[in-house]
Amino acid sequence: MSTDVHLPTMQTVAVLRSEDFRVIEGVAEGEGITFADELVMDDVYRQSPSATRIPLSLALRDGEDGFEIDPSTAIGKPGNIVYLDSCLTMMGSNSTTYEMLVLVEVEDGALEATYLLPLANLVAETNYRIVGVDRDAATTRFAEVACVSFTRGTHITMASGEQRPIEQLSVGDKVLTRDDGPQSVRWIGQTTLRAVGEFAPIVITKGALHNENDLLVSPDHRLFVYQRQDKLGAGRSEVLVKVRHLVNGDTVYRRDGGFVDYFQLLFDDHQIIYAEGIAAESLLIDPRTRAAMPNDVRAANGSRSNHAHRPHLDYEVQEKLLAQPDAVGLLRKASSI
Predict the structure, then answer these.
(1) How many whole angstroms separate alpha carbon 323 and alpha carbon 114?
(2) Three-state SS for 142?
(3) Which among 39, 117, 179, 211 has most CB atoms closer than 10 A?
(4) pLDDT of residue 330
(5) 175 and 156 in contact (C-beta within 8 Å)?
(6) Is 145 in contact with 198 (CB distance < 8 Å)?
């Protein structure tokens, strides 16, 4: 596997400010969420009624820990470094547990701000008691958010043209790729997660993008669309779009609730494959996602091995280009003219 270190530009997550999630009962009463060393077990937190989750754009740093705040971000100071501090387990009033990641922004070695990334939907005016703090799990949980995944039942186009449910694939099977023809699957990941918050799948309904059936994928999954006419104004025919930016509440929507079986497909290189007839990306190995892979897979590819840069990664379009009344409709028309 290639050791090229050319990486995608950034990861955007929706966070709460520290002051939006405060202790209402306990040792640290009145204080906002903070880093692991300052947290007190059994303190009870509550989200402010006026709180809204704000996009935080994080650029990967080549060969270094942490992320750099991107200039396009809506929160934090561009250029400051953000570290994953810990994974918290909170218990709600009904005894349901919720996981949340604590991120800390650092400037010149000093703490500048603390952010909370809930991995489930929080409800204002509801109590959440802190019952667990895990410094080691944060990297793995963040990796699970960053990994692109297909759901159980998704039909993948094989090299033979067969449409095979993803759960029936095996390592070594040959899958049809857009750029390199038949390619062997090197690893298949599978996780079962609560389908809430950042882990709730996005549904692209049948026909919305010429897909044969409903396609359910993780929110950050990117689709490849060839525009016969540049309807988006991207300045090129080939575009890569995140499904979370296509949600319109109708033909593309988030399915929240219950559990979801996610599958990840890994190839020697980052590939564009076909799922329910839609061109979609495979798992990309980079510093965000490596922690989600088992130790033997990491060892087989080297501790600093990442996928080489592929030209199609340069085709990703930003959210502002998709903030149109019916971006899905535009892409559908653009790819069928």
Answers:
(1) 29
(2) helix
(3) 117
(4) 87
(5) yes
(6) yes
Residue burial 75-109, b: 16+ Cβ < 10 Å; e: rest: bbeeebbbebbbbbbbbeeeeeebbbbbbbbeeee
Tokens for 201, please give them: 């799948």
Phi, psi of 279 (to 5 degrees): -75, 120
Strand, helix or coil at 125? coil
Asked whether residue 7 carries a pLDDT value surpassing 50, the answer given is no
Q: How confident is the model at residue 182 (pLDDT cuts 50, 70, 90)?
A: very high
Each residue's pLDDT tens digit, 56-113: 988 887 667 889 998 878 899 999 999 999 999 999 988 889 999 999 999 999 999 9
- What backbone phi and psi angles, to 5 degrees, belong to 9? -70, -50
Amino acid, single-letter form, for residue 262: Y
Q: What is the pLDDT averaged over residues 30-53?
A: 95
Handedness of CA 249, 119, 96, 204 (dihedral sign): positive
Of 158, 220, 189, nearest in space to 13 by CA: 220
Position 130 confidence tier, pLDDT thresholds 50, 70, 90: very high
Do residues 91 and 127 make contact, with C-beta atoms less than 8 angstroms apart?
A: no
Q: Is 202 helix (H, G, I), strand (E, B) or coil?
A: strand
**Strand, helix or coil for residue 162:** coil
pLDDT at 146 over 80: yes
**β-pair partners for 266:** 187
DSSP 79-113: T-EEEEEEEEEEEETTS-EEEEEEEEEEETTEEEE
| pLDDT over 70 at 301, yes or no | no
- Which among 110, 100, 101, 130 has a CA at the least distance from the CA of 31? 130
Alpha-carbon gap, residue 149 to 210, rounded angstroms: 20
The sheet carrying 202-204 orders its strands as: 187-194, 259-266, 150-151, 215-217, 202-204, 252-254
pLDDT in tens, 226-255: 988 888 888 888 999 999 999 999 999 999
